[in-house]
Write a structure and sequence with these properties.
By secondary structure, this protein is of the alpha/beta class. It contains 12 helices and 13 strands. The strands form 3 sheets. The protein has a 7-stranded mixed sheet with strand order 2-8-7-6-5-3-4, with helices on both faces. Strands 9-10-13-12 form a 4-stranded antiparallel sheet. A two-stranded parallel sheet has the order 1-11. Helix 6 links the parallel strand 3 and strand 4.
Length: 403
């Protein structure tokens, strides 16, 4: 059977690591998961309760609270059928209110597009902004699916090599002249580093001077440990902002995200969404709406991540991973392991097989320099982080890079 050149994208290595870790667990091995950004807590209790209330029979549903009934739409009281392509209006209003609460930004809910996870948002954004064959710049290291989604849409990703001195973020004078857009992420994945207001403004203004689109990935907003993250919407309306319920709200598998688009792009994106996705999952939207009321629970989760971060910043150097850029947000530590290996894929495999700790090779995030780096996630429970650090320390005490 023939296949398209667009389909020849690279594997998402972390997913392969997850599968090998799963196989080892099926064999009875104890595995500590530091490879994936999967919050250990699961979806907020309030979100799960709201969806459960919608799923009960009508006779029982009559006893539901007003909050539990939130999200009932024109699709029918119990059918949970199609919603409008841009998402439940009450959810879009709730997301707009979040921007007022977090950033003091007055946002028109009409500009909010609910999506099937942030991945759906990237598909819509790249389809709306770029023509086949155009080039799009992105920082390296960076989230690998940017590159692969761009390739699948017949677009050319252009990596901007960032440095630890620049906190693994691109600089304005690094933006190429021949690109149609720039993607930034703050907090970044894999680094967890953030752009301050001045740095964000400089990048947006540089993009605007070049007449290129600016896409801000803000999926880890809410997960910060000192100063909060800055949204691109605090600086300009002429940007695309992408976010999700996956990380701060711990709803990875529910596949519900959102993006904010300029007013004159709403109908453009709506037409694409109608045809590409019809609508986001109705059940997930109901849960997401209730999750917006669960901020205290989410803040308790963030306190756990803050403790885990402290443990990682203390424990990784003791284990032998000394070249790291302390993260400002998210739940990752990106380590330069060039003094230990030139093969991060093989190194990660040895750590998994011998120490029982799953970590992600840097090749996922930087195809050129990633052979010298690893990403460690601390999204797991504190007990797992402590055990993972103990195992890493024991492994490194016996590690011989020549073997």
């Amino acid at each position: 059977m023939r296949s398209s050149s667009r389909g020849q994208v690279d594997a998402f290595i972390v997913m392969d690591v997850m599968e090998r870790a799963r196989a080892l667990q099926a064999e009875g091995r104890s595995i500590i998961h530091m490879e994936v950004g999967q919050p250990a807590t699961g979806a907020p209790a309030h979100a799960r309760q709201a969806l459960a209330a919608r799923l009960v029979p009508p006779s029982v549903g009559a006893q539901m609270s007003d909050t539990a009934q939130a999200g009932q739409s024109q699709a029918g009281e119990d059918a949970m059928g199609y919603t409008v392509a841009l998402g439940l209006p009450e959810l879009r209003r709730g997301i707009a209110n979040l921007y007022k609460s977090w950033y003091d930004v007055d946002l028109d809910p009409a500009r909010v597009v609910v999506t099937s996870g942030s991945s759906g948002a990237f598909l819509l954004a790249f389809s709306a902004l770029f023509d086949a064959g155009e080039k799009v710049a992105l920082g390296e290291p960076g989230y690998p699916s940017y590159r692969q989604i761009l390739k699948a849409l017949s677009l050319e990703p252009v990596g901007i090599p960032s440095s630890v001195t620049a906190r693994y973020q691109p600089l304005p004078d690094q933006i190429p002249d021949d690109v149609a857009g720039l993607i930034v992420a703050s907090p970044g994945n894999p680094s967890g580093t953030m752009l301050g207001a001045q740095e964000m403004r400089a990048l947006i203004e540089a993009a605007q001077r070049k007449g290129i689109a600016f896409v801000s990935d803000e999926i880890y907003h809410g997960l910060h440990y000192e100063a909060r993250a800055v949204s691109a919407l605090e600086i300009s309306d002429d940007v695309y902002v992408i976010n999700s319920f996956s990380k701060y709200f711990a709803m990875t598998g529910w596949r519900v995200g959102w993006m904010i688009v300029p007013p004159d792009h709403v109908r453009l994106v709506e037409r694409l969404a109608q045809n590409m996705f019809i609508c986001p999952p109705h059940a997930s939207q109901i849960a997401a709406l209730a999750a917006l009321e669960a901020i205290p629970e989410m803040e308790a989760n963030r306190a756990v991540y803050a403790r885990n971060r402290e443990l990682m910043l203390e424990g990784l150097p003791r284990a032998g991973f000394t070249k790291i850029a302390p993260p400002d947000g998210a739940f990752y530590v990106y380590a330069d392991v060039s003094d230990l290996t030139e093969d991060s894929l093989g190194f990660a495999s040895r750590i998994l097989e011998e120490a029982g700790v799953a970590v992600t090779p840097g090749l996922d995030f930087d195809p050129h320099r990633g052979g010298h780096t690893l990403r460690f996630s601390y999204a797991a429970s504190t007990a797992d982080v402590e055990e993972g650090l103990r195992r890493l320390t024991a492994f490194m005490a016996q590690y011989d890079p020549k073997v």
